[in-house]
Amino acid sequence: MSALSSAPSAPADPPPAIEVQGLTKRYGSRDRGVLALDQVSLRIPAGTVFGLLGPNGAGKTTLIKVLTGISDITSGDARVAGLDVRRDSLRVRARIGWVAAEVILDDDFSAWENLWLQAKLQDLRDWQERARELLRYFSLDDRRDEKVSRYSTGMRKKLEIALALLHQPSVIFMDEPTIGLDVATRRMLWEIVTGIHTEFGVTVLLTTHYIEEADALCERVAIIDHGRIIAEGSPNELKARVQADLVVLETANGLDPKMLSALPGVQEVRPLGNEWTIRVASAEAFLPKLLHAVPPEEVRRISVEKPSLETVFLDLTGRRLGQDEPMRDVRKFYMQMRRARA
Amino acid sequence: MRSQLWGLYLREILRTFRNPFVLLITIVQPFMWLAFFGSGFGQYAKDLASVYGTSNYIEFLLPGVLSTSMLSVGMFGSMSTIQDKRFGFMKRILITPTSKEVIFLAKALGSATRGLIQIPVMVAAAVAFGVTFHLSALDWLAWTVGLLMVAIGFSSMFLAITASSTDWQTPGVVSNFITMPLMFASAALYPSSAFPAWMKAISDVNPISYSAKLGRTMVLGGSIDLQGLAVLALFAGVMLAIGYGVSARWLKVE
Asked: What ipTM, to 2 d.p.?
């Protein structure tokens, strides 16, 4: 597959693929509008898979819209592939690829015709050989002339990624690419993301609210909440920030929080009804003491969470990812399904 | 710009031919005007040959129906734009070096081309209804260009009106609001000479009147109305310019 490789030889200190400084995006008026991005600053090195992790409505998609030139910037600066997003919008769009949460293809067209249209939109001349190789890479070459409405969801996703790669972009934006996919297709997509990053040398900015996805795919992750970046680092760096286990205890009746706080090794206790999230230095050392202190008939459930991006988010915000708006995710999923079948 | 315009224009055309239902409606709708209105009203028009300039009302009606059909193709164009917005395709297009103005031009030209598909079908239908054509190649060309101008003008107008909308119903509502006054206050279905003054004033600036008269003059044995053709070209140019500017500023992405 070396012929497909688009990675330029790396200079000693390559410029960042994406650089954002004090970026603010407000929808509507200053007093009654919605602040979707609030002073976001990011520096994404070229050639990395960078994850933007956050709940629905956190500002992930808005950031992609702003960086791809779909939405205006209210204030601040953004550069993609070394170009100013505001001043060089068309040139930026020639250097980026985009994979949507919903699969967006022209269903009346075959895979080859979709690639033809993408080539026209990107103003490419000699695109056919590249298209053939991409179809081979994604194992779609034997069905290239079939209408894409007959494709499975996995095949449609592959074609969408092929479209994003056709013009050899330096950055690909993937906006929640695995939302609503079954486990097997999601795993396949993970392999593809890792594969295209290695094979084509592109920088991938991936938004997700799936913890395991960010953990498995991303070299660096920024956690975004209410339009603000609240933490950034490699998954291991972020997990190291927590340096604690979380014990979640559900009881039949209420407990005295002071009793829990007084147990050895407890750093913090957060009650939520009859559920207690207890931050401890070591769950292994803490559990025997907890079981000794709480009457057995009171205990309904105990679970332990080792440091993960989920616990990082919980630690930073006091909430779990997706805890606030489970219905929006379901709606988004069904919207995607309707579009895929339309 | 040429590459993007050609790609998007061809997409519009291919999608029409791959959607037999849209194609059928595009062709059948004006045909029904000839068949039902032409056959019914034509019985009364027979005795008024001096008013209509012919005893075969279909001969009089055909250029008018073709002109009003160009009005409805504009509605289909704006519906396809709204479909692109709702299904995310507009975003896919705009995350490439394609401008909103190019999208507008491709949609307007695509709609206009869809409108032209009706001409041969309608002419064939008119022949079946007993119309005989004695037009030169230049006459046919002038008539087609006139219809193309009307189609471009109305497509641009519809696209400009619905540029910021994502509601499926908007093109239909706009079409219902616009079609009736434009169709009836024109020379499409009957001569405008006997209209009340206020209706005649509308008819005199109505592009459908100019287009209907352009075709009718030639079908009934006259020569090319160059002044009418120039008015239609002006209408298309102004509407294209308005649509171009409106799309650049207000075309909504989703």
From this structure: 0.87
